[in-house]
Amino acid sequence: MSDVKHEQLIEALKTIIHPTLNKNIVDLGIIEGLVIKDGNIGFALNIEPSDVDVMEKMRLACDRLLLQIDGVKKVTSVLTANRGAEPTPPHQGDAKQFENKKYDNKKATAQSTPPPVDGPTGIAGVKHVIAVASGKGGVGKSTTSINLALAFNKLGLKAGIFDLDIYGPSVPRLMGLADTRPEILDDDKIAPLKNHDIVSMSIGYLTGKDTATIWRGPMVMGAIQQMLSGVKWDYYSPLDVLILDLPPGTGDAQLTMVQKIKLDGAVIVSTPQDLALIDARKAINMFDQTKTPVLGIIENMSYFLCPHCGERSDIFSHGGAQETAKEKNLDFLGSIPLDMAIRQSSDDGDPIVHSQPQSDHAKTYIEIADKILEKI
Ligand SMILES: Nc1ncnc2c1ncn2[C@@H]1O[C@H](COP(=O)(O)OP(=O)(O)O)[C@@H](O)[C@H]1O
Ligand SMILES: [Mg+2]
Q: Would the pLDDT of 117 be above 60?
């Protein structure tokens, strides 16, 4: 197989004419971050947010065209809009991955006033949307999200999970679908994937395992926007509840997501340590700011259950989340212990609520789901 050259791609892309500006997209300078890695191509099309519909068609045309080039295995493109997003220059470390290192800071600065945020919109085909958030990563947000989605399913609801953590999408692995690609339907929408009786979508299904490094600030919102309008959630049947696994933290990307999507409420996951709780408080404040009801706090890795003797130890201290809930006048939804079985089942792609539905842990997740259900 021949090596794909940067110039080859550029020449091909020059044949694509912008639908309204009547000029080819290379000369217009809207192609950003073109990367080639082992026949995998990635790039972003920087567009005006108002052009999203026509540009989405053009993006698909680019993908189809590049896929015809000898040696191209996969094309991952996204629409981005610089406006309003923090420009993030390429990190020095991965600069060599970027054939096209030019970054249009001028444009980004000229347009750096935040855009008026549109009112939140519901997600088509979904009755209730619940965000799961944490102030920092690694506290078990994805583990909790997926087990809650499975718990809703056990309660008789049609449930789905939407992995918006584009920096570390873990839903493909947790769902046992790491090597599965979603189907693109006739209307160019993406069908969610179904496994363990729930449906899921993740940027990880589209990009594969190793491409997280290509994301840059402005690309994030473009990709999210595309995912929000591009997934046919009711492909199998309408959903009663969709869980959003938000990226950790409380920055611009999180805030925009929370503002754009009509949420029934948010659930905060924290470990019992003080440090994690400081971050959890920031997440609570973010939801307060956007008037999203916080449905409660879950304490994860709350205590350790020894797999040998069954003895319980409070290795991170215990009950911190409960105290924070009280202080913030929020409901405490439950404690999940740090247990090998929870990690192991997740690693195996069959989380505990599905693989061991009779276990105490599964029961705890189902009780928490039940409490959430009462509130929405
Ligand atoms: N209650 C738990 N018991 C044991 N391991 C856990 C538990 N919750 C999460 N983990 C493990 O901790 C790691 C981080 O969890 P993850 O859900 O990916 O966190 P986040 O989404 O917040 O980054 C994973 O390896 C996961 O399997
Ligand atoms: Mg995660």
A: no
Ion ligand 2, residues whose Cβ is below 5 A away: 142, 165, 170
Residue 85: band (very low, low, confident or very high) from pLDDT cuts 50, 70, 90: very low
Burial 46-56 (b: 16+ CB within 10 A, else e): bbebebbeebb
Residue having the nearest C-alpha atom to atom 5 of ligand 1:
343
- Centroid of ligand 2 to alpha carbon of 342 (angstroms): 14
Instruction: Give the residue from 99, 97, 79, 69 showing the smallest Cα distance to 9.
Output: 69
Pairing of strands 239-245, 312-313: unpaired
C-alpha 146 – ligand 1 centre gap (Å): 11
Return d(Cα 27, Cα 9) in angstroms, integer: 13
- Compute the distance between CA of residue 302 and CA of residue 144 in angstroms, rounded to an integer: 13
Ligand closest in space to the Cα of 143: 1
User: Ligand 1: which residue has its CA nearest to atom 2?
Assistant: 338
**SS3 of 82, please?**
coil
Ligand 1: lining residues by beta carbon, under 6 Å: 134, 137-143, 170, 248, 300-301, 336, 338-339, 342-343, 346
Residue 232: phi and psi, rounded to 5, are -90, 85
For ligand 1, atom 16, name the residue with the nearest CA. Answer: 140
- Domains observed in the chain: 6-110 (3.30.300.130), 126-375 (3.40.50.300)
Tell me how far apart the alpha carbons of residues 170 and 155 are, in angstroms, rounded to a whole number.
Answer: 24
Which numbered atom of ligand 1 lies nearest the CA of 300? 1
Of the ligands numbered here, which is closest to the C-alpha atom of 171? 2
Res 217: pLDDT: 60
**Pairing label, strands 265-270, 126-133:** parallel
Expressed in angstroms and rounded, the spacing between residue 131 Cα and the centre of ligand 2 is 13
Spatial separation of the C-alpha atoms in residues 160 and 142, rounded to whole Å: 13
The residues, any chain, with a CB within 8 Å of residue 22's CB and separated by 6 or more, are none
pLDDT of the residue at 144: 98
Judged on CB neighbours under 10 Å (0-12, 13-18, 19+), 57 is exposed
Q: Is the dihedral of CA 350, 356, 360, 362 positive or negative?
A: positive
- Residue 99: pLDDT band with limits 50, 70, 90: very low
